[in-house]
Design brief:
It comes from Sphingobacterium corticibacter. Helix content is 35%, strand content 23%. It has helices spanning 6-21, 48-65, 86-102, 127-133, 147-159, 199-202, 224-237; strands at residues 68-72, 106-110, 123-126, 139-146, 165-166, 168-173, 176-182, 185-186, 192-198, 216-223, 250-253.
């Protein structure tokens, strides 16, 4: 199924507004006026002509948003415990799987806690929930990083007490990096590693350290949100539920 994206909604909205505004010629004249505060709330009666006009489109959009694409075995909160959140771990696992579909050499993934916008309730997952989880038009990006830069990323993850990651293990004490492994092996400064993330972070969003000067960068046309929907649908077709767990990807030593 093809789902409506925000990029297709906004041009339609702009076209509608232009069409209504183009129906008559208005001559503006400056007059004296007294400002008045008007409450914009549920007591304002909607314009029936406009609501009737958009009703078919609203119904179509709502039907898509209500489509069930999979299930989760438990609630996935975005709140962190010892540097990890279940929602963040799910997101990072999904992103890693998507990255490896695009490039089998991808070994790890990175998101941010701030990028996870909602909790995911136990049970059915609808398309609309994925839009809430990732309401941005971000695209998947694959970065080739030196081992040195990857360790700089590890230090950033440590000083921020953990971020959503997969394919790596970061051990932290007092917000300092103790050790970092990729696919269960210590990071080698003399090697390069492929990390999957999204364009906002690769462009400097959230001030993440270690990824600003990759050896190579590949931007893909795949939207993160569309990838998440496809990932959840794929699990569902296999008879699987989302079953995110806290594990040893982030270890905070007391």
């Amino acid at each position: 199924m093809t789902y409506i994206s925000f990029r297709s909604i906004w041009p339609c909205s702009a076209a509608l507004l232009f069409a209504f505004g183009a129906c008559k010629t208005t001559h503006w004249q400056k007059n004296n006026y007294q400002p008045t505060k008007l409450a914009i709330d549920q007591h304002i009666e909607p314009d029936s002509s406009f609501t009737n006009y958009i009703a078919p489109y609203k119904q179509r959009l709502q039907a898509q948003m209500d489509t069930v694409i999979g299930q989760t075995a438990q609630m996935l909160p975005r709140s962190t415990v010892n540097g990890q959140s279940l929602a963040g771990n799910f997101f990072a696992d999904a992103l890693l799987a998507l990255g490896q579909q695009l490039d089998p050499e991808v070994s790890c993934s990175l998101g941010t806690q701030g990028g996870i916008r909602v909790d995911i309730a136990q049970g059915d997952i609808q398309v609309g929930k994925v839009f809430e989880l990732m309401p941005f038009e971000n695209s998947i990006t694959v970065l080739t990083l030196s081992g040195e830069d990857l360790l700089a990323l590890g230090k950033f993850i440590a000083k921020t007490n953990g971020q959503p990651v997969a394919g790596m293990s970061v051990t932290i004490k007092d917000q300092q990096l103790v050790s970092m492994k990729i696919q269960d092996k210590p990071v080698d400064k003399n090697k390069t590693y492929k990390l999957v993330t999204y364009d906002y972070l690769a462009n400097g969003g959230d001030n993440i350290e270690g990824i600003a000067t990759p050896v190579k960068r590949v931007d893909t046309p795949t939207r993160v949100r569309e990838g998440l929907i496809a990932y959840i649908e794929s699990l569902s077709k296999q008879g699987k539920q989302i079953n995110a767990q806290r594990d040893e990807r982030i270890i905070i030593v007391q």
